[in-house]
Amino acid sequence: MRRATPGVADGPALLNGTLSIVLGWTALAALITLAILGLWVAPPDAVQGDAQRLMYVHVPAAWLAYLAFGVTALASVLYLWRRTRSPVWDRVAGASAELGVIFTGLCLVLGSMWGRPVWGTWWEWEARLVSTAVLFFLYVGYLALRRIPGPGRAKRCAIAALIAFVDVPIVHFSVEWWRTLHQQATVFNPDLNPEIHGTMAFTLVFGVLAFTLLYVFLLDRRYTLETLEEGREERELEQAIAERTGTAELVDAGGYTATLALRLRRARKSLPGSGGETSR
Amino acid sequence: MTTRVRRRTIAAATVVVVAAIAIVVLAFQLSGNITYFRTVSEAVDQRASERDQRIRLAGEVVPGTLRETRTGVTFRVTDGKDTVTVVHQGDPPGLFKDGVPVVCEGEWGAGAVFDSDRILIKHGSEYEPPKVDAKQAR
Amino acid sequence: MSLWREVWLVAGKDLRIEARSRVVLYQILPFGALVLLLFAFALDPSRGLLPRVAPGLFWIAVLLAALLAVSRAFAIEQQNDARDGLRMSGLDSSALFLGKFTAIALELLVLEVFLGVGVAVLYDVEVGSVAVLVLSALAATAGVAATGTLYGVLAAGLRVRETLVPVLLLPVVAPVMLGATRAWEAGLGGVASDGWPWVGLLALFAALYTGMGMLAFGPLLEES
Questions:
Q1: A61-75 mean pLDDT
Q2: What is the tens place of the pLDDT at every residue in A111-147?
């Protein structure tokens, strides 16, 4: 069983650098196009009028939240299963959960903005809204857990993620299982018969695509950030150890070594009768 | 893993799966106990026992029954089977008009009238562009 | 050693510590009672509101007290490398989980008896079906204790345990709170028979979280 050394040679990113840049710009272009489609090209709704245009961001945000938390759950399982255990899955889980929380929060806020003119209220205590709010807090707790460093972090977070994921099907099916103010699924209803057509359907699908591109791009960036942070924590730990023991067996990181050599020299000068090891 | 430990792990895992499924089934059954709203006919059936309770009533606004009062509006709601008169204090929400599905929150008032202080519009899940009148388009 | 003997060994240890330190009795119980008192100050008692909201307030007070009880249950494992002792004891992790779970559940039940009497007296409620009240309380307590033990061990070795456990635990026990409140509404002057489906649901949640706890306790204890 290969145990990868964290922070070193796992590959700092999920995607190739050029692909990532291209993806980023494409996502931006797609979002701008979505704004144009959603605000001008798509017709207003017969019943709800222009307020309905919020659907083109609210629904993609909700679906991307499901996707993000699904990725977190899958990555958590892959981490917990010994045969596939790797820090890659831990980083993916953490990065994806962060995006999921953002999308869930966005979904709640946009939904509230949509509900006020259309339902007559900012918020209502019904199954869909409450279960989504609980979902938000479940993963906020996960993010709090994520910030606690230590060797057991990945396992703790993986287990917490799997428990939290149980709410995702509850959120989706809440409108089918219980009587709610929130309408039932337009596309993913039990009959699998979409109730939206034409330009509106196209804009909705385009919105999902644009958000997915954004998600993949941000996931890659966040993953890279996570890898770099882990690497930096490794180096800081080694530096602290080196300063304590007076040796300088360090990761060679350019100016890092020079700075440390300087600090060691100063520290050694201040020691009475200094007879420390010579640095390399 | 010893046999004893493995047996306990399998037992625990089975309990988790069975409990999860049973919870889903039971949640279905219990959907009646935390009804977010009652349909007009359900509310009428339960009127005697729910007279002093705050409930939500759902139905469609019967076209042509909307009248303004000194303090609000009055209209009739129906779910196809029963119809009830609602007296609402205050202004209804923006999209309120004939034929829309609504959820009215309040209590049963005198007799068969429902006193409401909160109206929400309940939208369906279909979306379509406004129908263009052929004569107007020309 | 059989599972039940191991469970009783662990639970007995925790209960003996409580008997000597009396933290639940002299600190957590007064806290729960104070929560009930503060709710009465915060809400207007003269409008007949308290009897209507008593079930919800009772269960919130129990839940807040449970957060402290869970925190305490793992604080006692902090000193003298007690967790290392648990790991090396040779006891099965399911037994460790069930032992801690039993101790927390029993402590919560004692709390609930006192707080229940407090609610009956302070909030002027009428007791309808004792059976519904007791059985739903047993099931809800099991659910809260099981989840609390699971998240307690997850956070056991962490310095931020006290602030972390609430934010992890509360969203997960939200359905238990919903069920317990509805069951107590039925049992306290409502239609008692409405409460039984909720008792069933609470029992299932308790089974679910107990099963999950038995599975996850071992790996989490290794990491703590």
A1: 97
A2: 999 999 999 889 998 889 999 999 999 999 999 999 9
Predicted pLDDT at B102: 92
Residue of C67, C97, C158, C168 to mutate when probing chain A, most A C-beta within 10 A: C168
Task: Give the closest residue to B115 by CA, choosing from B129, B128, B105, B127.
Answer: B105
Contact by Cβ (8 Å): C175, C156: no
pLDDT in tens, A46-64: 888 888 999 999 999 999 9
Residue A70 within any structural domain of the chain: yes
Note the ipTM here: 0.86
pTM (predicted TM-score): 0.85
Asked, for residue A3, whether it belongs to a domain, the answer is no
Q: Are residues A149 and A257 in the same domain?
A: no
- Same domain (yes/no): A170, A250: no
| C212–chain A nearest CA distance, Å | 9
DSSP state of B116: E
Considering only CB atoms, A118 lies closest to which of B28, B95, B128, namely: B95
Domain of residue A261 covers: 246-280
Residue A158's Cβ-side half-sphere holds a number of Cα atoms within 13 Å equal to 25
Same domain, A187 and A268: no
Question: Do the Cβ atoms of C194 and C186 come closer than 8 Å?
Answer: yes
Residues A148 and A197 in one domain: yes
Q: Which two tokens stand for residue C214?
A: 């038995």
Q: In this structure, what CATH number is given to the domain that contains residue A34?
A: 1.20.120
**Which chains have 3+ CB pairs within 8 A of C?**
A, B
Contact C182 B4 (CB under 8 A): no
Based on the fold, state whether residues A102 and A21 are members of the same structural domain. yes
Q: Does A278 lie in the same domain as A231?
A: no
Within 8 A of B8 by CB-CB distance, chain C residues are: 3, 92, 94, 214
Q: Say if C48 is an interface residue toward chain A (CB within 8 Å).
A: no
Q: Where are the domains of chain B?
A: 1-34, 38-121
Q: Indicate whether A219 belongs to any domain.
A: yes
Q: Verify whether the Cβ–Cβ distance B120 to A184 is below 8 Å.
A: no
A74 assigned to some structural domain: yes
Q: What is the largest CA-CA distance in chain B?
A: 83
Fold of B38-121: OB fold (Dihydrolipoamide Acetyltransferase, E2P) (2.40.50)
C104/chain A closest Cα distance in angstroms:
21
pLDDT tens-digit map of A187-234? 887 777 788 888 889 999 999 999 999 999 999 999 999 999 888 888
Give the single-character DSSP code of B127: B
Helices marked H in chain A: 17-36, 55-80, 87-118, 127-146, 153-165, 167-177, 198-245, 255-270
**Among A236, A254, A271, residue at a domain's last position:** A236
Q: Of C138, C121, C142, C114, which Cα lies nearest the Cα of C31?
A: C114
Tell whether C174 lies on the interface with A, counting CB pairs under 8 A: yes
Asked if C143 and C173 touch (Cβ cutoff 8 Å), the reply is yes
Residue A88 to residue A109: CA distance in whole angstroms: 32
Residues A150, C219: C-beta atoms closer than 8 Å: no
With an 8 Å Cβ cutoff, the interface of chain C facing chain B consists of 3, 92, 94, 178, 182, 194, 197-198, 200-201, 204-205, 207-208, 210-212, 214-215
Number of domains in chain A: 2
**Same-domain check for residues A64 and A156:** yes
Interface of B with A in 34-93 (CB under 8 A): 34-37, 92-93
Same domain assignment for residues A201 and A135: yes
